[in-house]
Amino acid sequence: MIDQQVSLRGGAACLPVRPRTGRYLVLAAVFVCAACGLVYELELVALASYLIGDSVTQASVVLSVMVFAMGVGSLLAKRLRSRAAVGFGLIEGALALVGGSSALVLYASFAWIGESRYALVGFSLTIGILIGAEIPLLMTLIQRVDRQDAGGAVADLFAADYVGALVGGLAFPFLLLPMLGQLTGALFTGAVNAAAGGALVLWVFRRDLGPRSRWLLIVFNVAVIAVLAVATALVDDFERAARRAVYGDGVRVAVQTEVQEVVLTGSGRSSLDLYLDGRLRVSARDEYRYHEALVHPAMNGPHARVLILGGGDGLAAREVLRYPDVRDVTVVELDRGVTRLARTDPALSELNGHAFRDPRLTAVTADAFNWLRAAHGSYDVVISDLPDPGISTSTKLYSAEFYGLVAQALAPGGRVVVHGGPSVSRPRTFWTVEASMRAAGLRTCPYRIGGRLADSAAGPDRATHRAQRAHGWGFVLAGPGKAPELGLARQAPELRSMTEPGLVDAGRRTERDRLPGLEPSTLVHPRYWEDR
Questions:
Q1: Contacts of 245 by beta carbon, 8 Å cutoff, 6+ apart
Q2: Which family does it belong to (predicted)?
Q3: Distance CA 172, CA 197 (A)
Q4: How distant, in Å, are the alpha carbons of 38, 420, 532 from that of 391?
Q5: How far apart are CA 12 and CA 30, in angstroms?
Q6: Are the beta carbons of 476 and 417 closer than 8 angstroms?
Q7: Of 141, 172, 214, 299, which one's alpha carbon is 20 to 30 angstroms from that of 241?
Q8: Which structural domains are found in the chain, ordered by start?
Q9: What is the pLDDT of residue 226?
């Protein structure tokens, strides 16, 4: 009876390691499991932002659901404390399987079903419950290894948990994502998770397991790791099949750059489509309509020096370089992978007229906001060819502060033109862009042009494509002194999409639809979600 009481108080008599060693092993497992848990969370946020859009909303959904579910998991784990070792082993195996396969299943649900929101919530809830069940069981196990006061045990557990979360949070963007990609990175993380949890229980706490429990854990963990390994071996085939389901059969180039996923479809110049993070940015069948409307109204005036913000595909630069009196064109593009394709891909370089070979053009890889802050001289024309303002990652490039920097970069009499999204289907977004430009001291002249000709349903962002086809693109032309007049330069080349009378009429029709009284978007108060 005395020996039994000593064993229960000390907790180390039935373990194959010394108490201090066992304690460190438990904390090491906490560290690894916390790192894996945060990787699962970041995988869900990143992939949901790509598939659904609006990273702020997707991050809020994932985080809030997971935190709620962690509380539920902690309560449910109370029932497993009497069998903490086997419970923890099974939970880690389940977490490895669910978390490791989450990105793959989320992408599959979007590719073949067309909807991933329900899968996102389901995975957030399940992963949160499993993560929440870890700490109560680990608290029991660490007390089993080395009996100490509850406050000290909690402090040790949470210290290891938080440090592990830090490592996982840094490993995801700087190691896993660039080296393995989203799908393989999640599968690899799951395998590490299963190995760490299984090793802790099957080694340190093996004497707490009966023969049936031991074999159950061995078979379960081996099966989980085998499933993840097979999925990893087949992930390339899966990605190709999923891309065909999303983009059609014409996928020719698909690369994950440091910034985004870039996909080129089509066999040649006339059928080329360019997708950035799933959003159709260029369709060879009608891109001239967008780029002519973006560039040529801004060229009505001095245009010796031109700055293009974004536009790494070279298509806006192609239109600018059609003016023989342009002396200098600077393209500031964040993603060097896009400019590389624009230079080297035969179809895309032919479409942009080999603009990057022109000696007048200089390409810079930089964030447009930070580049403007560094002050690089003055320009006669600034062309903002940036992602849609409704994409939360680009909202700073549609803020009043950003337009203030643009205004400083304009020479006297200079002009800036901005793509503000479809003015008919998303009027609050478009007129918020215009209000933000006015807040920076610019005088504006809005206009729009008819929509896409191509009827492509490929790519994740089908809703935006349909809006562009139905309602066209909206633009805002502006200047620092007075509003520029809509028109075309005398030396403007022949255009396929517009005439000067048609452009002036487009400006009048757009002005009639003005939404007055909108507040500007700023860095601390972005306002581009109101149309969603």
A1: 111, 112
A2: Belongs to the spermidine/spermine synthase family.
A3: 20
A4: 24, 12, 11
A5: 19
A6: yes
A7: 172
A8: 2-245 (1.20.1250.20), 285-512 (3.40.50.150)
A9: 97
Amino acid 267: pLDDT? 80
Tell whether 317 is in a known binding site.
no
Nearest partner of 528 among 408, 436, 456, judged by Cα: 436
pTM score, whole prediction = 0.83
Name the one residue in this structure whose structure tokens are 């990175």.
Answer: 185
Q: Which of 156-160's residues contact partners 24+ apart within 8 Å by CB, and which partners? A: 156/23, 156/27, 157/27, 157/30, 160/27, 160/28, 160/30, 160/31, 160/34
Angle at 262 between CA 364 and CA 185, to 5 degrees: 110
* 3-state DSSP of 39-71: HHHHHHHHHHHHHCCCHHHHHHHHHHHHHHHHH
Question: Rounded to whole angstroms, how far apart are CA atoms 263 and 146?
Answer: 54
Residues 477 and 417: beta-carbon distance below 8 Å: yes
368 appears as a binding residue in the annotation = yes
Tell which residue, 371, 393, 368, 356, has the closest CA to residue 279: 393
Beta-bridged to residue 362, according to DSSP, are 330
**Is 148 annotated to bind ligand?**
no
Helix (H), strand (E) at residue 385: strand 379-385
Annotated binding residue at 313?
A: yes
Distance, CA of 185 to CA of 171 (rounded, Å): 10
Local mean pLDDT, 10-residue blocks, the chain (532 residues): 37 66 90 96 89 80 95 93 92 97 94 89 97 92 76 86 96 91 95 95 89 94 97 94 86 86 87 88 92 97 97 97 97 96 96 97 96 89 89 83 96 95 88 96 94 54 49 90 92 92 94 93 83 56
pLDDT of residue 51: 81
Q: Find out whether 388 is annotated in a ligand binding site.
A: no
**Torsions phi, psi of 361, nearest 5?**
-100, 135
* Residue 154: predicted pLDDT: 85
Q: Which residues have a catalytic role annotated? A: 385
The span from the CA of 30 to the CA of 518, in Å, is: 50
Q: Which residue is associated with the tokens 């009639």?
A: 512
Place of tokens 């065909």: 244
Q: How far apart are CA 160 and CA 24, in angstroms?
A: 10
